[in-house]
Write a structure and sequence with these properties.
single chain; 6-stranded mixed sheet; 15 helices; ribosome binding; GTP binding
Length: about 425
Amino acid sequence: SSIVAIVGRPNVGKSTFFNRLIQRRDAIVDSVSGVTRDRNYGKSEWNGREFSVIDTGGYVKGSEDIFESEIRRQVELAIDESDVIVFVVDVEEGINPMDEEVAKLLRKETKPVFLAVNKVDSGNRMDDTYEFYNLGLGEIFPIAGMSGSGTGDLLDAVVAALPEEIEQTEEEELPRFAVVGRPNAGKSSFINALIGEDRYIVTDIAGTTRDAIDTRFNQFGFDFNLVDTAGIRRKAKVKEDLEFYSVMRSIRAIEHSDVCILMVDATRGFEGQDQNIFWLAEKNRKGVVILVNKWDLIDKETMTAVQFENKIREEIAPFTDVPIIFTSTVTKQRLLKALEVAVKVFENRKQRIPTSKFNETMLPIIESTPPPAIKGKYIKIKYCMQLPTPTPQFVFFANLPQYIKDPYKRFVENKLREIYDFEGVPIDIFFRQK
Ligand code: GDP
């Protein structure tokens, strides 16, 4: 989906606006899993159009003495990684030198920019908004992030400026793999080991509305598109990058992929940022393969693959049906195996189970272990099917679907995964009224 980036200096109200857009749905997910994550990415929808939102300010929030270079970086990143930019300023403070700095960077760009003048809570602030025309970014949108007033008009404009979604002809699509992970996990080494000196790159496929991001790979019997992360193109810059930026850079690649190859540095373990990237892939319903890289450096006496694997599965619960492969780009251990598994995950994600077969396998299980009765009422599931959606979704029709709770849903998912191979693939299960 398309990406909208929110930029602006600290304390202008970027995160209030961001939270309004994503309606805190993500925050709820976080509290359940008990994992603290940077709240700077989420999905939103307006006028029936879905898009992703990145709050690029998440990282520098709260610091007043933010360096100019930091702001510059934030804006450059937003320009690189998004389709539309919302620049938030604060009517109470008027134009700040840093706003001018940001405006200068944005004026040079061809991407659509919308200037949101925030904290316009009452009519009499309206007069103060006009000075922002001096930033030279065209129309201004007075908003009050807190109450939401004015945000509708802004979003109408934002959504109208999003690029057309390119429909993919599903049948002939090649797998799209994104190699993601923290800085230094070994992503570039992995890609270099595969493509050598650019010898096996067949074509660059240019998107119609954005830069070329796909690189065709065809070698060793594999044929797929490698979804470029900004990191591959701007390697020099990535090296010094902070974690936050590396996660942000992953977002675009993840969104454009079918399967994410998540590289983890074995010498550092599976940590918060690895989890964040994993969560991004899962949230976007992408296939996932985890590579535990630099396995050559691990003393197998103190840490075995099984121990390492168990630790990762603990961290990624409840979605644990994910392949974990131990690799080394130095000894070239299991690099092709990793591709093979990624292709399998791609196929798993595309599979369609015929309805009759699905009913034949699932209904007897449900009959022998039905959802617990509620207030003496029996819950009956008589029919089920896979939906014709791009990612696997299953619906079970019941007389009282509202009484079916999460533990039962997990039970059904586990059984489904035992019977069918959805390894590496997030799936959705719904219970609906018959
Ligand atoms: P990226 O930031 O994820 O692209 O990581 P790089 O591919 O640049 O690798 C970071 C560092 O780790 C480099 O010094 C690599 O030589 C080293 N490295 C990458 N993969 C391996 C591996 O499998 N084993 C060992 N020993 N070193 C590795």
